[in-house]
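Notes for week 9. Today we move from apo structures to complexes. The key idea is that a small molecule is not decoration. When we ask for a structure prediction with NAP present, the ligand SMILES becomes part of the input, just like the chain. The input block below holds both the sequence and the ligand string. Read it once before you look at the output, and try to guess where the molecule might sit.
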Amino acid sequence: MDSFRAFRVHSGEDRKTRAQLDTITLDDLSEGNVVVRVGWSDVNYKDALAATGTSRIMRRLPMVAGIDLAGVVETSDDEAFPAGSAVAVVGAGLSEDHDGGYTEYARVRSDQLVRLPDHVSGRDAMAIGTAGFTAALALLRMEENHQTPADGPVLVNGATGGVGSIAIDIFSARGYEVVALTGKAESSDYLRSLGASQVLVRGELEMGARPLERGSYAGGVDNLGGDVLSWMLRSTKPGGNVAAIGLAASTELNTSVMPFIIRGVNLLGINSVIMPSVRRQAVWDRIGTDFMPRHLDKIISQEVALADLQGVFDAYIDGTMTGRTVVRIGGG
Ligand SMILES: NC(=O)c1ccc[n+]([C@@H]2O[C@H](COP(=O)([O-])OP(=O)(O)OC[C@H]3O[C@@H](n4cnc5c(N)ncnc54)[C@H](OP(=O)(O)O)[C@@H]3O)[C@@H](O)[C@H]2O)c1
């Protein structure tokens, strides 16, 4: 491949950024010992932040956007990933300090790669992507901290988003009663079809202001931060686990120590980027078996081509997006 297409973010005027489809060569990409022919990528909230310049995600510009990719190894000097292997890079620093996945060819380090489990296709892997990987990591962390379905219901907020949708799917598949909290009242049927047994609407929620509210939930998955996370901590039963994943509403968290010292509630920080590669592969191996989402067909709400990326990001920033976007690059 002499030259190929990649969607890159550049410096623009007035300290703004500009994203566009460029023609580049391998020498334009970050260093790496494995070249991947990219079949699929996806769109996450962080991709929208980077591509629109809403937040500084990329540490240098220009940079190829896209935090995830799936494809087939083209060339490699690592015998663990020979040419022809089906691989993915998910949440491993792409589009932050390493060129990302919105490209026909990527050059990555083998410590960023995972082998795709046998029956997970590249398209499935990108329907899952960082969002699903992070939901799976939250489930793993909560269960390592002794969460079980018998403890009671788990609340998932930002429910129609990528992390939220896949969390509902995989928690319910494991036997958890899942309560979905959404801003979109009209999405109740969608959320129930993924496995939610109850749907709460954010605008109708009475959050109270006491240091401890009634302990209604045995645990939670938080994509929002701010007041909702504070309320979840005050509403969690003794010993429950709340996984803090996102900041879609706020980076703030105001809480007293009461949930922690009176109820022994655990606030688990979830980071999908910084992780040893052995742990990363272990999470993917669980995704390939008992953590596999059952409803990816419903969760994939759109499939776009590399050339159509420009139009997809605003819905993520506005919070109007439902489900997951997969990006078809080489396909396969
Ligand atoms: N820690 C990590 O490693 C990690 C990994 C992946 C993602 N994240 C973070 O997790 C969050 C979710 O990611 P995602 O990919 O699922 O994003 P997404 O697909 O854009 O979904 C976010 C969802 O949050 C809700 N929401 C959006 N804006 C909101 C606002 N201003 N106030 C209240 N609710 C709002 C909406 O759901 P409803 O309308 O249903 O409420 C939206 O669909 C993001 O903050 C992302 O940066 C973190």
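The longest strand covers residues 34-43.
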